[in-house]
Amino acid sequence: MLPEPELTCRAEDGRDVPLLVWRLPEPVLAISSAVLGGGIGPCGWLVNATVPMSYDRDDPAEHLAGIAGDLGLHGPGVGLMTGVDVADVVAASEGGVRLWATVGLGAPVQAAAAEAESDPHVGTVNIVAWVPVRLSAGALVNAVATVTEAKTQAIRELGLAATGTATDAVCVLCPAEGVAADYAGPRSTWGAPLARAAYTAVLDGGAVNLAGTQSWSDRVGGD
């Protein structure tokens, strides 16, 4: 089982900015679309960092690597960013799968919209999921698709005509050793609980986000 994330903070621009940290007892296998540690490979830690609405750095991967280094995290890992307060993380469990989501829906988009959509408000859905068996490379890709489909189902049920936001990120982790499962689609042995966990977390987290302050900056009165 992946350990629960630690909620902590970092000092930045005179403010204490929240972040979630997963310190893994041993490396696992990850697939991720994150700005830091994207792709398929080993993973020894994860960070999901809140950033202010005014964030305009052009080196987010280097920024996240610096945050990880300050936390004493070294080696391969995954770093994500979001404008929402990561203290609002929602966890869900289903059939051995464990999943965490930070849900910001201030800028929902349709993936295949004819024209580029823009919105000044923050919007990022970050999802970290743990599957307790080794997944093949194909199944890892399938797992990302399954999580994304379930996320979109939840967003539609929240009343938004959207498939997600333009900055969503997913990270699925599994053991690095063992016999690999070949499938992770929504009707497979491990894809089905993964889909249900993702749906539950995004639905619950999205309801909280839409009902309250959508960005950390607005909450603390920052930029």
Indicate the structural class: alpha+beta
Alpha carbon gyration radius: 16 Å
**Order of SSEs:** EEEHEEEEEHEEHH
Chain-averaged pLDDT: 94
End-to-end C-alpha gap: 38 Å
Low-pLDDT residue intervals, each spanning 5 or more residues = none
Fraction of residues in helix: 25-40%
- What is the assembly state of the chains in this entry? single chain
Shape: globular
- The proportion of residues in beta strands is 25-35%
Tell me about this structure.
The protein is of the alpha+beta class and 223 residues long. It has helices spanning 60-70, 137-157, 191-211, 216-220, and strands at residues 6-12, 15-32, 39-50, 78-82, 90-94, 97-103, 108-109, 125-130, 164-165, 169-174. Helix 2 (137-157) runs parallel beside helix 3. It is globular.
